[in-house]
Amino acid sequence: MTNTLRLMLASVGLVALSTAAHAQETAAADDSAYAEQDIVVTGTRVAGRTRLDTTSPVDVLSGEALRGQGTAELGQALANVAPSINFPRSSAVDATDSIRPATLRGLSPDQTLVLVNGVRGHTSALLNTNGSVGRGAAAFDLNTIPTIALESVEVLRDGASAQYGSDAIAGVVNLRLREARSGGGATLGYGQYVTDVSPARSSRKAHDGETLTASLWQGIALGTDGFLTLSADYLNRGRTSRGDVDTRFTPAIVSSRFGDPEVEQYTLFANFGAPVGGTWQVYGHAGYQKRDSTGAALPRPLSNANSVPAIYPNGFTPLINVDSKDINTLLGVKGEIGDWAVDINASYGRNTLTFETRRSLNSTYGTASQTDFYSGRLTYDQWTGGADVTRKIALAGDNSLNVAFGVEGRRESFEEEAGEPASYNRGPLGANVALGSGAQGFAGFRPADAGKNSRENIGAYLDLEAQIANLTVGAAGRYEHYSTFGDNGTGKVSLRYDFAPQFALRATASTGFRAPSLQQQFYSFTQSTSINNVIVDVRTQPSTTAAAVALGGQALRPEKSTNLSAGAVFRTGGLEFTVDAYRIRVRDQIALSENLAIPGVGTTDRARFFINGIRSTTKGVDVIARYRLTSDTLGKFDLTAAGNYNEVTITDAPGTTPGGAALFSQQRITSLERGTPRWKGSAAADWSLGNVGATLRATYYGNVVEPAPNVIDYVNTGKHTLIDLEGRVKLMQKGTLAIGANNLFDVYPDAVATTNGNNYNAGATAFPYYSPFGFNGRYVYARFSLNW
């Protein structure tokens, strides 16, 4: 840990030295010119608090910085500029290819709460059940919010369950929408991967992943003080393929579609606010997204028992289509009653995923099988309603006490609908146990899986923050009642002391919790898998079913956490520097069990279910430095250096079934401990002079371990640094043309060796899909923006 901090501090020192080299030519930045007035609303309920004045670390990422990258995905854009966030680009893991989760501080994706305009967002209907980072989580889909609709994103890197309720164990991401009365803009972009692919046994050039983006926003005045901001976004992205040649085909060819799925998506958003009399204002937003995404399962060569040569004489690769429809709405009023500020709002969100399995077959029907299947539907929706009341009370001198309290009610539901019978049935050839059940690649949900379940909860909080001279003291407490498991209470205390305007120390201590998701409680799905070369039907099922209870299952309990953090803030002129160390202990964490033999049932059936029992300790440190300066001759420079060291240790895990089988394997433990990089750092320089500008960014990723059933087959991604470069020029006064490259030097994670048992299907998965930066190679792009 000490070496980590030294290295990060050394990198910050290099930035300072590089800026000092221009000292004789630059005009020194005074405090007023570079005072950062990023007002934050996350992590504090004190009006007017800036990000460098908070008791907890809060990053403010501008919408402009997120849009000024060669990616159309919000999750990827956040990971590019925030070292504590990771956004793995997995592949060959069913629907998780299309709906990828992000992680904060190496914890599970569902342990980070996402807010939209300060109000709890809804999670995706998808439950990640395959071997990806975030296995077992149902998380918010960041890519449902386009960057064109955002003013900024606030990332609270601290536990905040006492302030916001369930899920905020790792922290909070608050997506703040544009609020514009006038002006507008349009952006058109195109890019593709131009790369040399070199897996273990072959090499080739690839030009794929062609991506077209188009976006538009417009601010409209409502009355004298109101606003309506409209945003629209369109994305059309081609697939990528990074598998190795498959020697089971003659001649050997790249048979897989191991890479990004093809996607067509459009998103519409509206955000508004308008006075309604006196101090009162009505506000709200509405968003809709439709995403059509098609990924691929692993290839089935002719030698595969599930191939039917009469239908596919050269073998086949099943395609998994996910049609996602997402709704995000909010309506509220806020104003003053006496000296109290009051905010009352209600929101509704829904995510519906419709699954189709294409270019496939159900081998138990033989030559009579159809090739396209409707495989079912998942729907998650959420109603929330809340009221928040705040008041700042003046005390003696310049001291003050901010009092905030409120209530929130929520109703959630999760529904699973069965697919068509041919997508899950065993047909006339079903007696052959070598054949898998249902559609190959992604079998349909069965009628026994279908159902709708819901729950309600209500919460109340009290949040106090006192400013006494240079000392800030905060205390928060929250009580929750869930209809499924009962009561829960959390608390948080925070301290900050400003020794001078330039230097402060801060610290927090809190408890947190995460309620088990409805998906974890009720999701059910049967899929065929090979265990010791035998086709086995594995059913993921609720932990309270008879089969699960016989294996040790029980009703799920909430996860609990204890968070400690301590840090420092330093600022002078154009320099900002923050360092924050943290420790997060989680108990009763929920995980998906192994595939377990069911007592008294045939050998071709297995069960798995969610179970509490993981204990973990996460330790780390975040270091962020920023320096801005202006030169009369060289232009404006914005230099940043940031790093995160994060170490997750599993201290306990679920034991064994009553029959002695392991509930949780070493493979799963390794996934939690080493699935994200322990080290991640970035350094960036943004420069502008007149009508031209450029951004140079270097991002370092430490090694990640992709586990396998056998330790000998574990795969390392290696340690790698990626360079991004973009150049910009202003055209026609209001237009800007940008040309750039992400991963300029075409860096890949270490390839999977041909001798490795984890190199499934003779090289179909040629690179580790745990790679924190993916495995697509160099991406080149052009973007034209016009503002008015």
Can you give a write-up of this model?
- The chain is 8% helix and 50% strand.
- The chain is mainly β.
- It has a single domain, classed as TonB-dependent receptor, beta-barrel domain (Maltoporin, Chain A, Beta Barrel), CATH 2.40.170.20.
- The strands form five sheets. It has a 22-stranded antiparallel barrel. The chain has a five-stranded mixed β-sheet with strand order 2-7-8-5-6.
- Strand 30 and strand 31 form a beta hairpin.
What's the shape? globular
How much is the radius of gyration in Å? Answer: 26 Å
Distance between the termini: 50 Å
Overall residue-averaged pLDDT value: 92
Strand tally: 36
- CATH architecture identity: Beta Barrel
| Strand-residue proportion | over 45%
CATH class: Mainly Beta
Outline of this structure?
This protein is mainly beta and 788 residues long. The chain contains nine helices and 36 strands. It has a single domain, classed as Beta Barrel (Maltoporin, Chain A).
